[in-house]
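Objective 1b of the project was to move from sequence-level analysis to a structural picture of ligand recognition. The entry below was assembled by the postdoctoral researcher (A.K.) and checked by the PI before modelling. It contains the amino acid sequence of the target and the SMILES of the bound compound, 2,6-diaminopimelic acid.
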Amino acid sequence: MQVPFVKMHGLGNDFVVLDARVGDVPEMTARLAAALADRKTGIGCDQLILIEPSDSATFRMRIFNADGGEVEACGNATRAVGLLHGAPATIETLGGLLSSNPADGGVAVDMGEPRFDWNAIPLAYAMDTLSIPVGWEDLDAPSAVNVGNPHVVFFVPDYAAVEIERLGPLIEHDPLFPARINVNFATVTSRDAIRLRVWERGVGETRACGTGACATAIAAMRRGLTDRKVTVSLEGGDLTIEWGAGNRILMTGPAVESFRGTFDPAAYGVAG
Ligand SMILES: N[C@H](CCC[C@H](N)C(=O)O)C(=O)O
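Corresponding predicted holo structure:
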């Protein structure tokens, strides 16, 4: 049996997108998701995205990290499925109800409202999430924000100098973060510009992270470091993030369909 997929990316953060509405898709288990995501033996991607029917939105989007874990939000993938849909859409996710609209420069997404309570991040203890009194070597006093998924944000003088391969996993798996955490290293360069690298929960460093850009922008705005509309520059390119009316986060940026293909579930030890 051959299952169709679409390979897509948002600023180099790449996805394999399956659509359960248009064909038989095997039940998505952590093992299958990780196998499909594997860049050596699978199709290869940062996240596997499964589109399903929804009773409350245009469609439901489920997100599986490369380690197979299902998570609540993925900003770049939200733009990708918005591009695929090709018209305004509401999208049901574990992190809440989002909306996407094709726009100049790609796709505009309403990512919902940020949450700041320690137990909404979540953190293991009651703490001030604007500046958490913790540190890892010379990284200290980060902010934490939940934008559907959990993020910790370190503001540093030189984001490019951070030893992300060593410090990323150390922080991702720290017991302070019961659901683990996406780790952002940011340098604010002006009132409307931030440069960012992200160690993603369940993936590692990616070329871009949409929710990381949202969380970092919101944290910078909360600290008074930037205005309420900024350009976040990641390795793969730029996103525009605005903390807009109604406390909602608006993200605009590109999305690309790379190619289409099919895979045989039997090749992954799964019945079709
Ligand atoms: N690794 C993230 C999910 C993907 C986030 C990123 N790809 C984005 O564009 O938001 C997490 O575990 O919450």
